[in-house]
Amino acid sequence: MKKYDLLTLGRSSIDLYSANVGSAFEEIKAFNAFVGGCPLNIATGSRRLGLETAILTGIGNDQVGNFIKHFLDKEGIITEWVPTIEGTRSSAVVLGIEPPDRFPLVYYRENCADINLNIDHVSAIPFGDFKAAAFSGTAFSKDPSRTAMFFALELAKKNDVIRLLDIDFRADQWFDPRAFGITIRAALSSFNIVVGTEEEILATFLIDKDQLLIKHQQISAPEIRGNIENAIQEILASGIDTLVVKRGKEGASIFQRGKEEVKVPGFPVEVLNVLGAGDAFCAGFSYGLLNNWELHKCVRMGNACGAIIVTREGCANFMPTYDEVMAFVEGYGGL
What we know:
Distance between the termini: 28 Å
Largest sheet: 8 strands, mixed
Domain Carbohydrate kinase PfkB: 6-321
InterPro entries: Carboh/pur_kinase_PfkB_CS, Myo_inos_IolC, Myo_inos_IolC-like_sf, PfkB_Carbo_kinase, PfkB_dom, Ribokinase-like
Family: Belongs to the carbohydrate kinase PfkB family.
Pfam family, one: PfkB
Protein name: 5-dehydro-2-deoxygluconokinase
CATH topology: UDP-N-acetylmuramoyl-L-alanine:D-glutamate ligase
């Protein structure tokens, strides 16, 4: 019997969200302070749903680090293995909210603490005590974090921990966006489950920097579809068990080798802020997975959590509880 349900690994930050919803970024008058970062969001969402969740992230010896850790502790997320890394700064993100489709953001991650996670920090984790570990792509962007994540994958595999990758593509966090795909492809075979948007799946096989905008303007729709389908098959051929493609308001699709695509419908809602929706999805999906639900229901749970979070102002601070999700899905006929 394993002691904990889920370990998330990677970035954390203070998130400064525009308090002037709808205002252009240059017209923002005030910000609200929250917390964020893909692994932190997943940890918060899964904890609020009821999982015993821990996080491995780094914080600096600064007030922002105190702010992040205070939030984690208050949520009941296990922070026993969160190091304060001297000589670094806790990460920050500044975000605008211009619904329905503009959410400009700026990262402040120069010498940030979580990218300085190292082999010793990973060695301190009792992987044998966890059922699952959720990794994010950005944690592979630079050393020492990159090497630490590969080591964490090794230890997780040796200890029969379910390994989930949220592709988490952030082009500006890589010295060359093509390096993202090369690095992630090297790690793919060590994962059981991969989750990503269509754009992130395309980025995993990016060979031309000009392709960064392919979804929007540079390639016709049939070519985009063909590229996505090829990329999906490549990911499946890497040896993973399951690929989940997040498709926004259309829901998500489940892909497994030798099986037909399974489309799982989403929940129609009015969007306020899409940031954090994918992390809420992973939290809900992980909850179902670790409660031994069948995959369709796991993805439906993820879709519900994502749908709830897009109606709210921020990410981690606004993750729904289990009771909130159940009340929400009742209005749509349940999971």
